[in-house]
Write a structure and sequence with these properties.
With about 210 residues, the protein is α/β, with parallel strands linked by helices. It contains 8 helices and 9 strands. The structure holds FE2/S2 (inorganic) cluster.
Amino acid sequence: MGKTTRELGCLKTGDSIMSLTGPLGLPTHAEKFGTVVCVAGGFAVAPIMPIARAMKQAGNRVISIMGARCKDFIFWEDELRSVSDKLIVTTDDGSYGRKGLVTEPLKEILESGEKIDRVIAIGPSVMMKFCSETTQPFGVKTIVSLNPIMVDGTGMCGCCRVSVGGQTRFACVDGPDFDGHQVDWDLLAIRQRNYLAEEKRALENWQCQYGGHH
Ligand code: FES
């Protein structure tokens, strides 16, 4: 989306970046819960994969739902299916799989009466928010992976501040996983938009400098 993403996307085999720090934050907790629904929006199929696999290995029945804008953005469908007992694919425009948003099959599963013990939802904030709102009336614990703007990633700058259950938490050290029913989604949305003007300017400068070929 932004300048740095484009820069990374321009790297060729053998190129390098100056440094890489990690692992940061807390690992996702996996144990035998019973039936776990893993919901991935857009590119979150990548982070949901190891979680679905770990949940499966821990002995859970895993139902996965992956959603994308359209067919061109679908990837790792077979990979996710290989670690899931059931996989549902949705696209916003209906160009592949089921037409609609991921929350629709999620709601149907909850309404079907099948006992769901946990939901993991990863994707854009608004998608995680709506997944949490979908599961809340059913009282199913829902874990989301928050993606506020981060700077140092080690709990020092406070940039990744989020409010969960009325408490201030730092997503980089206390997260990224939090209880979706406790997250202050409005605050997260405001804070994510804090630097939109700077982000836009950085991307424009970069495109000028490199002729916009990337
Ligand atoms: S990114 Fe700086 S405290 Fe989390």
